[in-house]
Design a protein that fits this description.
Strand content: under 5%
Low-confidence stretches: none
Number of helices: 4
Shape: flat
Distance between the termini: 24 Å
Number of strands: 0
Radius of gyration: 19 Å
Amino acid sequence: MLLVGKGSVDLFEKQMMLERDTAKSFRRMAAKTKNIIPRLLFKEIELDTTKHAHMYATLIELSAGAAVSRVERYEMRKELERHVANEKRMLAQAQRIARALRHPQMKPLLQAIVADERRHHRALSTLLTTIAVEEKISEDD
């Protein structure tokens, strides 16, 4: 059962392919670039674009009614608990490094890492909470 129309799925698929092609292009550009700053920027855009392609793939799966099984939810919760703890440690360490660092060209990179670590921690914590609620609802059923 499709939760969205066939036209939407077609658009998701086309956009997913465009994102994949763009990511490959940035990967090639980064590999050819010697200067570290543009190379880092190209790599960052490549990773974001790859992430977008995965998001479109997820939209396609959701359109087909994909679901997570009870066993998969349990295993995912266990792994997420470990990853949330790891992200918390990485965030704390990145914050310590960023506070101590005085180099003006390095500071923005570390601030970006801290921002990413915060975002990762929030996202994983939210997912963990969602899975725990879904498990509780399943148990109550």
